[in-house]
Write a structure and sequence with these properties.
The complex is a heterodimer. By secondary structure, chain A is of the alpha+beta class. Chain A is built from two helices and five strands. The radius of gyration of chain A is 11 Å and the shape is globular. Chain B has four domains: 11-184, P-loop containing nucleotide triphosphate hydrolases (Rossmann fold, 3-Layer(aba) Sandwich), CATH 3.40.50; 187-256, no CATH class; 280-474, no CATH class; 512-674, no CATH class. Chain B contains 32 helices and ten strands. In chain B, α14 (326-343) packs antiparallel against α22 (490-524) and α18 (396-402) runs parallel beside α31. Classes of the chains: A alpha+beta, B alpha/beta. The A-B interface holds A 19, 21-36, 39, 41-42, 45-48, 50, 52-64, 67 and B 67-68, 70, 72, 101-105, 108-109, 220, 234-236, 239-240, 243-244, 261, 263-265, 269, 273, 275, 278-279, 366, 370-371, 373-374, 377, 383, 407, 475, 477-484.
Chain lengths: 72, 676
C-alpha cells in the first residue's frame, strides 16, 4: 500500500521508497528509510500527508507519498 | 594568573539539525559580541561571535542547520564545507547540539560528526521537553559509546549553557598539553570502513580495544551493503547501516518511561493546517503583517524623516544661503538625500523582519509552506518559495538571500527571477506620488491594489513559463520537517530582527552611499557653462537646463525613442535612471526635472505639474514600469552573487523588456482604441 492510502492513526513500516538516489539520501538523513516506522497523523492536509517518524513530524507532498510503499 | 602560552584561538563550532536550538545557545554564549558575515534572510550565511572563558578567548561559529554530512541544500553545503575546511587546523572544537526530545534521529548526524575524529562535545538541548516526554538520559552510556563528553542543557533558560564553555576550555587545555585524544570508537570506524554493526552488547565491552572482528551485521544490511567497502556504498545504503546501528545503541543510551511521546497532532496544527480554515488564516496572517509593517511603521518613519531633514538643514546652514558650492550639493542632495531615503524605510523593514522572525521561531513558517505547496508546485515553484516572496514585499535583497533555503537550484533560480515583481517597500514612494496625481480619491486604493496584484500575476505567469522552457524538469517532491510549536522568546526574535535591520542599514551605508554619490555625479556633470545658466529667467529653469546638460539628462535623451512608445519622455527616462540606483530616487529625480526643487512624495506642486504634462493612462504605465522594469542595483548585485552574472543580467534585461512591452501595449491600445 502507498502512504497516501494509509489510515490515520495507524503505524506502518516503510517497505520501499521509489525515488532517485539523491532524494533517497535526503529522506534517509531525515530518518525516512525502508524499515523505519511511521505513524500517520493526518491523511491529507492540503494535499500533503502528515507523518511521525523517529519522534519528528513531517509533511510529505502527495507525489512523494505516492512513491512510499508501506507494509501492512 | 592565566598563562596564555600560545596565540592559538580555538573555534567553537555549533553544529546540528535544524531546529535543535543552536541559535539560542549561540546567542547565550556570544551575547552582543557577534556579527553576521552577510546579507540577512531566513537563513544566514555565517554567524560568528566571541566569548571568553577562564582567561581564554574563543571564536564561536553558529553553522546553518544540517541533517547529514551529505549536503542536500546550500545551507547544508555551507555547514559541511566549513567543517571540512577546519578539520585539519586542529583549532576546531565541534559542539554538536542535539534536540534531546528527538535524539534518535539526531544521532544520525552525531555519528557522522564523530567519525571525523575531531575534538567534539555532545550537547543534549531542550532536556526539559524531553523529560516531559518521558526520556531520561544515561549520559555515562552515551559518553562511553561515542567516547566524547556529554552535557545537558536548556537553551531557552540558559541552564547548563555555561558547562559548554567549561568543557571547551578543558578540551583546549588538553589540546595544548597534547593530552587530548579524539580517536573514533572502534565500532564506529568499522561501521564506516567495513559496514559492520556493533553487536548488541553493553558499552562495557567497548572498553576493550579488541572488539571481535566477527560483529554481526543486521539482516537489512547484509542484503544491501554488507560486502561493499565505504566508497562503493551509496548514500541511502550507508544511512540504513547507520540507522541499524542507532537502533541498537539507542536503547542503551536512555530510559524511556512508557510511551509518553506525543503522538497526536497538536491543537495548533489542527487549526492552522485545517482543510478549510488553514488558507484563510494564512491570508489573514499576511494581512496583519502588512498592517503592522505599514500602519505602525508610518509613525517612526515620520520621526526618521524629520531627523534626516533637521540634519540636512543643520549641515546646509554651514554654507551661506545662496551658496552654489558643489560640496554642499554633494553632501545634502547626494549623500544625505540618497542614504536618508533608504534609512526612512527602516521601520517598515523592522516590523516586517519582526513578524517574519516570530513566524519562523513559532514554527508557523513550515506550516505555511505546507499550505502553499500545492499551489506553488503548479507554477513550478516550491512551497518554501513563498517565504522569500513574502520577504520580497519588504525588500528584494533579503528576499533573494532567503531563497537559500530552497534545496533545488531550478526552483531557486525561478524564485529569484520573479522576486523583483513582488512590489517592494521602496516602490511605495513612487506609488504615493503618482497615484494621487492621476486618479480620483475613490480609485486610489483600487489602483494601488491592482499594481500589487499585477506583480503577483506576472510572477506566477513568468514562473510557469520558465518551468515550461528554460527551467524544465521533474517536479521536486515536497518533504519538510514540521518542528514542534514554540512560544518564541523575546531574546531570539529580538536578536534576529535587530541583526537583519543592522544589515539593511549597513547596505544603506555602503552600496547605497556609493551609488548615491555616483548618481549625484551623473546628474551634476558636465556642468552647464556659467554664461548659459544666466540666460534663464528663474533659478528653477536653470536647474532643469543643467540637468538636461548633465550625463543623466543626455542618457535620458538618448533613450527617449524607447520611452516614447509608452508615452513617456526624456524627463521620465532620467528619473528611471535614478530609480535603478534605488527605486525611490525616482521621486526626487522627477522633482528636479520639473523644477520643483526638493520634493517629497506627497508634494502637491509636483503632482500638479505631472497632471498637466501626462494623462492618467501614462500615469498608470509609469506605475507598471516602476514595478516591473529594471530591478535596482542592490537587487542586481545580490542576484549576481546568488545566481551568477548571466542570470542577473538576463533577469534585468527580461524584466525591463516585459515592462516595456506591457506599457507600450497598454499605452498604444489605450490611445488608439479607447482614445484615453
Amino acid at each position: 500500500m502507498v502512504l497516501t492510502n494509509a489510515k490515520k492513526g495507524n503505524v506502518y513500516r516503510i517497505a520501499n521508497i521509489d525515488v532517485n538516489e539523491s532524494l533517497l539520501g535526503k529522506l534517509a538523513s531525515l530518518g525516512l528509510i525502508p524499515g523505519a516506522e511511521v505513524e500517520i497523523l493526518q491523511g491529507s492536509v492540503h494535499g500533503a500527508s502528515l507523518v511521525l517518524c523517529k519522534g519528528a513530524q513531517f509533511a510529505l507532498g502527495r507525489g512523494l507519498a505516492n512513491q512510499i510503499q508501506l507494509d501492512d | 594568573m592565566d598563562k596564555v602560552t600560545s596565540e592559538k584561538k580555538y573555534k567553537i563550532v555549533l553544529a546540528g539539525n535544524p531546529n535543535s536550538g543552536k541559535s539560542t545557545i549561540f546567542n547565550r554564549l556570544a551575547g552582543a559580541r557577534q556579527h553576521v558575515g552577510n546579507y540577512p534572510g531566513v537563513t544566514v550565511e555565517k554567524k560568528e561571535g566571541w566569548c571568553s572563558f577562564g582567561g581564554r578567548s574563543f571564536n564561536i561559529v553558529d553553522l546553518p542547520g544540517q541533517y547529514g554530512m551529505t549536503a542536500h541544500s546550500e545551507d547544508e553545503e555551507a555547514a559541511r564545507e566549513f567543517i571540512y575546511e577546519n578539520i585539519t587546523n586542529s583549532e576546531m572544537i565541534l559542539v554538536n547540539i542535539v534536540d534531546a526530545s528527538n535524539f534518535e534521529r539526531n544521532l544520525f548526524l552525531t555519528l557522522q560528526f564523530r567519525q571525523l575524529g575531531v575534538p567534539m562535545i555532545l550537547v543534549l538541548n531542550m532536556v526539559d521537553l524531553a523529560r516531559q516526554r518521558g526520556f531520561e538520559f544515561r549520559k555515562g552510556e552515551i559518553s562511553k559509546w561515542l567516547r566524547l563528553p556529554v552535557l545537558e542543557c536548556v537553551g531557552f533558560t540558559g541552564e547548563g549553557v555555561n558547562d559548554i564553555m567549561k568543557e571547551c576550555a578543558s578540551i583546549a587545555e588538553q589540546l595544548e598539553a597534547g593530552s587530548y585524544s579524539a580517536e573514533v570508537p572502534v565500532w564506529l570506524r568499522d561501521l564506516k570502513e567495513k559496514g559492520v554493526l556493533p553487536t548488541p552488547i553493553t558499552s562495557e565491552t567497548l572498553e576493550n580495544a579488541n572488539v571481535p572482528e566477527s560483529l554481526q551485521p543486521s539482516q537489512a544490511v547484509v542484503k544491501g551493503c554488507g560486502a561493499k567497502n565505504a566508497d562503493e556504498r551509496n548514500e541511502s545504503e550507508t544511512a540504513t547501516l547507520y540507522y541499524s546501528a542507532i537502533s541498537r545503541i539507542f536503547p542503551e543510551m536512555l530510559f524511556r518511561e512508557s510511551e509518553k511521546t506525543i503522538r497526536k497532532v497538536s491543537i495548533l496544527d489542527r487549526v492552522f493546517l485545517h482543510r478549510f480554515l488553514g488558507l484563510p488564516l494564512f491570508f489573514l496572517m499576511l494581512f496583519l503583517i502588512f498592517q503592522l509593517t505599514f500602519t505602525i511603521g508610518e509613525y517612526p518613519m515620520g520621526w526618521i524623516e524629520g531627523g534626516v531633514e533637521a540634519l540636512s538643514e543643520k549641515i546646509g546652514s554651514l554654507w551661506p544661503d545662496d551658496s552654489e558650492s558643489l560640496l554642499k550639493s554633494l553632501i545634502l542632495d547626494g549623500i544625505i538625500g540618497g542614504v536618508g531615503g533608504v534609512i526612512v524605510f527602516l521601520p517598515n523593514i523592522f516590523f516586517l523582519f519582526l513578524a517574519i522572525s516570530l513566524l519562523e521561531d513559532s514554527g508557523y513558517m513550515s506550516r505555511a509552506a505546507v499550505l502553499m505547496d500545492r499551489f506553488m508546485a503548479k507554477i513550478g515553484l516550491h512551497g518554501k518559495s513563498f517565504i522569500p516572496m513574502l520577504v520580497g514585499f519588504g525588500c528584494t535583497v533579503p528576499a533573494i538571500m532567503a531563497t537559500r533555503m530552497l534545496e533545488n537550484r531550478r526552483e531557486r533560480l525561478a524564485t529569484i527571477f520573479v522576486l523583483p515583481l513582488m512590489s517592494c517597500g521602496a516602490r511605495m514612494p513612487i506609488y504615493a506620488l503618482l497615484i494621487p496625481a492621476f486618479f480620483p480619491t475613490v480609485w486610489q486604493g483600487t489602483v494601488l491594489f491592482s499594481i500589487y496584484v499585477l506583480g503577483i500575476v506576472l510572477a506566477i505567469l513568468l514562473a510557469k513559463i520558465m518551468s515550461w522552457t528554460v527551467l524544465r524538469g521533474e517536479p521536486i517532491p515536497f518533504v519538510m520537517e514540521l518542528s514542534p510549536w514554540h512560544v518564541p522568546t523575546m531574546r531570539t526574535v529580538g536578536v534576529k530582527t535587530i541583526e537583519r535591520c543592522w544589515l539593511y542599514l549597513k547596505k544603506a551605508g555602503t552600496v547605497i552611499l556609493g551609488i548615491s554619490i555616483l548618481l549625484w555625479c551623473l546628474t551634476t556633470f558636465p556642468q552647464l557653462p556659467e554664461e548659459k545658466a544666466q540666460q534663464y529667467a528663474s533659478e528653477q529653469a536653470a536647474a532643469e537646463a543643467a540637468l538636461e546638460f548633465s550625463t543623466a539628462g543626455r542618457i535620458g535623451k538618448a533613450i527617449e525613442p524607447i520611452m516614447e512608445t509608452m508615452g513617456m519622455d526624456w524627463k521620465i527616462g532620467t528619473a528611471f535612471l535614478g530609480a535603478f540606483a534605488a527605486k525611490e530616487v525616482f521621486v526626487a529625480q522627477m522633482g528636479i526635472v520639473y523644477q520643483c526643487g526638493d520634493v517629497e512624495e506627497d508634494d502637491s506642486s509636483l503632482r500638479e505639474v505631472m497632471r498637466k504634462n501626462y494623462s492618467p493612462l501614462i500615469g498608470y504605465c509609469l506605475l507598471i514600469f516602476a514595478l516591473v522594469s529594471a530591478p535596482c542595483m542592490a537587487t542586481f548585485a545580490v542576484a549576481a552573487r546568488e545566481a551568477g552574472w548571466k542570470w542577473a543580467a538576463a533577469q534585468w534585461f527580461f524584466l525591463t523588456l516585459i515592462a516595456w512591452v506591457l506599457c507600450t501595449g497598454i499605452f498604444q491600445i489605450g490611445t488608439h482604441c479607447f482614445g484615453l
